[in-house]
Specification:
32% of the residues lie in helices and 24% in strands. It is an alpha+beta fold.
Length: 187
């Protein structure tokens, strides 16, 4: 009797695991979510890149100004814009009348960017060997010839998304403002 009862009341075996359709639905959902999140993630990364590049330029300009005061010697910052598809833009800190070719240039992003990730533009600045530069006198103020170029705008752009950040130098003493793309004064 017990055998018969066991046969009649046996619990059917449950299938273990997932069916192929269930797995495909989950994978499709993951791809849809990734497709939704990817553009905003790229926008975020590009915004961070241009913010970091603008901050790096701002720090180097402040360093040039403070070094000019400290050493009582003229300093300048040269901008190497270059071909955006072939090289990463660079900035060079120069003491006095150093030859920019003999000084190590600092890439935007501290060497972590690939060509084409960011571009650098400056408003009309005097050039030295074809490189726009921003010069400081030994008292830390902008060189007299820079007065004609004020306000000076330095723009960093991420070409893929159009994210743009600007550094605007407004006074002869080097007072600057950081702007985002679309704000008045950001080219």
């Amino acid at each position: 009797m017990t055998k018969m009862w066991k046969r009649r009341h046996r619990i059917p075996a449950q299938p273990s695991g997932f069916t192929l359709i269930e797995v495909l639905v989950v994978v499709a959902m993951i791809f849809v979510l990734f497709g939704i999140a990817a553009p905003s993630w790229l926008t975020f990364l590009n915004s961070r890149r241009v913010n970091n590049s603008r901050d790096q330029i701002s720090q180097l300009i402040r360093l040039a100004q403070s070094e000019a005061l400290r050493h009582r010697s003229p300093y300048s910052v040269a901008f190497v814009e270059g071909d955006p598809n072939a090289q990463v833009p660079e900035v060079v800190l120069l003491r006095g009348f150093e030859d920019p070719d003999n000084v190590t240039a600092e890439e935007l992003g501290y060497g972590s960017y690939q060509p084409g990730m960011v571009t650098l533009e400056t408003s009309a600045l005097p050039e030295d060997d074809g490189r726009p530069y921003l010069g400081f006198r030994s008292d830390g103020a902008l060189e007299d010839e820079m007065n004609a170029y004020l306000p000076i705008t330095i723009t960093v752009t991420a070409p893929t998304t159009g994210a743009k950040r600007c550094l605007v130098i407004q006074t002869l003493l080097g007072a600057s403002t950081q702007l985002a793309g679309g704000e008045p004064g950001c080219l």
